[in-house]
Amino acid sequence: MTVKQRTFPSPIADPDTEQFWTAAKNGKLMVGSCNSCGEKHYYPRGICPHCGAQDITLVEASGKGEIYSWSVLRRADPPFAIAYVTLDEGPTMMTNIIECDLDALAIGQRVKLKFSETEEADGPPVPTFVLD
Fold first, then answer.
1. Comparing 2-11, 101-110, 117-126, which segment has the lowest mean pLDDT?
2. Strands 30-34, 92-97: pairing kind
3. Residue 111's beta-bridge partner residues?
4. Which of the following CATH numbers is that of domain 18-131: 2.40.50.180, 3.40.50.720, 2.40.50.840, 1.20.1290.10?
5. What is the helix (H) or strand (E) element at residue 24, kind and residue range?
6. Per DSSP, what are the bridge partners of residue 129?
7. Which of 10, 41, 98, 108 is 20 to 30 A from residue 64's alpha carbon, by CA?
8. What confidence category does residue 77 fall into, taking pLDDT thresholds of 50, 70 and 90?
9. What is the CB neighbour count within 10 angstroms for residue 20?
10. Which helix (H) or strand (E) segment is 23 a member of?
11. Where are the beta strands (DSSP E) in 5-109?
12. How deeply is 75 buried, as exposed, middle or buried, from its count of CB atoms within 10 A (0-12, 13-18, 19+)?
């Protein structure tokens, strides 16, 4: 069942996420890359969740990945799909799958990034995904 899209709350940038949200306004999805251990991570933060180092660089992700897990929240109006998507670069992120038949989603399906507008007209968009 394809449904109308929900409205997303506006993110609030802080010093650790400001560069991420600025990139989102320019249509780019960024992930953290640790200069100490080399691991990539999502969500943006100033400390590497893998080794604890504070030497992080944001790098652009391809915006492609696959559904790791998902669930449809049907009691919401409108119903929506929340999912973990594993990016081709490695990190897994929590997001929404939009513009799809909610009953046709499956683990392993390929998805691609589509930024969605938020409640605040001039605010940054949030990363969501559509089926690829």
1. 2-11
2. unpaired
3. 65, 131
4. 2.40.50.840
5. helix 18-25
6. 97, 113
7. 10
8. confident
9. 22
10. helix 18-25
11. 30-34, 40-41, 56-60, 64-73, 80-87, 92-97
12. exposed
Contacts 24+ apart (CB under 8 A), 30-34: 30/58, 30/59, 30/60, 30/61, 31/58, 31/59, 31/61, 31/87, 31/89, 31/91, 32/56, 32/57, 32/58, 32/59, 33/57, 33/58, 33/59
Q: Which residue in the block uniquely carries the two structure tokens 């890359």?
A: 33
Query: Looking at the predicted structure, is the pLDDT value of residue 4 above 80?
Result: no
Task: Judge whether residue 18 has pLDDT over 90.
Answer: yes
The Cα–Cα gap between 6 and 57 comes to 32
pTM recorded for the entire structure: 0.92
Domain coordinates of the chain in residue numbers? Answer: 18-131
